[in-house]
Design brief:
Order of helices and strands: HEEEEHEHEHEHEHEHEHEHEHHEHEEH
Strand order of the largest sheet: 9-8-10-11-12-14-15
Distance between the termini: 17 Å
Helix content: 25-40%
Shape: globular
């Protein structure tokens, strides 16, 4: 996938004229009609298409997500809906410096395919100031070079540790690597495993989580086993066989929700009794309606970068109010809402600096030392000025299979940083050390 992204990027960079595309009627280096901040791409003097505020211009944000056929669509659809609701709330609270924010006009489906992701990005990049969402680590990798060349800032729907080294990405929460370190440290505290296996998809997503598990296991003197698998419920036989024959005490699993059901259910059916801890995107409440439910209830825990939908915090309350009572609770909504705060902070900072150009927005993002997540993440989150040293290192452990099939699930361990993550120096993306 990385090679595919590199090839596509080379083709894009070869036609440098694309870098000058502008959205709407805004002019590079122009200012708003009211003498406001400097603007360039993706900002218009005309109101947003659905805006009730005809005296405001429009800031267009793009969304590229897995909306129809990919393995994460059950999470991606609510992620996207939550982000639409988030920016509507921003508009009702006054917008950004005389502008409303539109996160609906340029929504595109990547089908969790890097080539498709790049194709739809090329369709919208000349029309948007930034990306409110770029879902997936391997898919975002396919456009990252172009984003950097054109000063396009993005809030990712992913947690790879590589983002700690990227000025154009506003990541939130503990990355996959740190999250897996914490999961292994938690297991060491509670049931002392001697063998840890990472079962994971290839690429920035799965490899990053597996690397974190490996780093923690080796530090704690545990045997580590690495098992890659492919996406698809019909492709998990090899992973199941590896689990039941090598009998690890702990399996850190990093795949899609349906894959996890096949892996955990298939392993239990063949007599495996060890523990599974799934990384962030592996769980969906619908799994408790699947044939794997008994196995999940017996063997499975979930690590998480933040608290669930029903949590009592100002941010969670605002999210639930904005979404309304008609939706079915899903932590895709929670993730979409949380991921939006840093981009809001960057927009406000750029506006205060008088520079809402793409370059001005990236500069503003790099200067942030903290972000107000309205209690959805603890103090200390959102230190982008700190680079890799400023990464957020806390995560949580839940027991979703002990819940009732919603997001109201038992919390096993509140925000914590394990000893491995606390001492770890992130000097390059973790997946490069796997």
């Amino acid at each position: 996938m990385k090679r595919l992204g590199a090839i596509t990027l080379a083709a894009v960079l070869a036609i440098g004229g694309l870098t000058a595309c502008r959205g709407g009627d805004s002019d590079s280096g122009d200012t708003s009609s009211s003498g406001g901040p400097k603007v360039d791409v993706g900002i218009t003097k005309e109101p947003c298409p659905k805006s009730e505020h005809k005296d405001r211009g429009c800031i267009y944000l793009g969304i590229i997500s897995d909306l129809t056929v990919g393995p994460f669509k059950a999470l991606a659809v609510p992620i996207t809906e939550a982000q639409k609701a988030f920016w509507k709330r921003v508009n009702t609270q006054g917008g950004i410096g005389g502008y409303d924010v539109d996160a609906e006009t340029y929504v595109r489906d990547n089908k969790y395919n890097p080539q498709t992701h790049n194709e739809v990005y090329q369709e919208i990049k000349g029309k948007v100031l930034a990306l409110a969402q770029s879902l997936g680590s391997p898919t975002t990798a396919a456009i990252l070079g172009d984003m950097k060349a054109n000063n396009v800032l993005a809030a990712p729907a992913a947690w790879t540790s590589a983002y700690a080294f990227e000025d154009n990405i506003l990541e939130s929460g503990a990355n996959y690597c740190i999250e897996s370190m914490n999961a292994v440290d938690y297991a060491n505290e509670t049931f002392k495993p001697k063998t840890v296996m990472a079962v994971h998809l290839a690429g920035d997503y799965g490899d990053d989580a597996a690397a974190g598990a490996k780093i923690a296991a080796e530090k704690l003197g545990m045997k580590f086993i690495d098992v890659k698998t492919d996406s698809g419920t019909d492709k998990q036989a090899g992973a199941v066989t590896a689990i039941v024959t090598q009998k690890p005490d702990l399996v850190i699993v990093t795949a899609g929700p349906a894959d996890v059901a096949a892996i955990v259910g298939g392993s239990a059916q063949r007599g495996f009794t060890g523990k599974f801890i799934g990384t962030s995107p592996t769980w969906n409440p619908g799994l408790l309606q699947s044939p794997a439910a008994p196995a999940l209830k017996a063997l499975y825990l979930q690590s998480s970068p933040w608290k669930t939908f029903s949590t009592d915090s100002p941010g969670h309350k605002a999210m639930r109010e904005a979404l309304g009572s008609s939706i079915t609770p899903n932590d895709g909504y929670t993730s979409g809402w949380v991921w939006s705060y840093p981009l809001l902070a960057a927009l406000k900072k750029a506006q205060a600096d008088g520079d809402l150009t793409r370059a001005g927005l990236v500069k503003a993002a790099k200067s942030l030392t903290k972000v107000d997540y309205e209690g959805m993440l603890p103090d200390g989150a959102g230190n982008y000025a700190g680079g890799a040293d400023g990464i957020f290192r806390q995560s949580l452990i839940y027991n979703p299979a002990a819940g009732n099939g919603t997001t109201d699930v038992p919390l096993v361990k509140d925000y914590f940083t394990g000893p491995t993550a606390k001492d770890y120096k992130l000097d390059k993306p973790c997946y490069e050390k796997l």
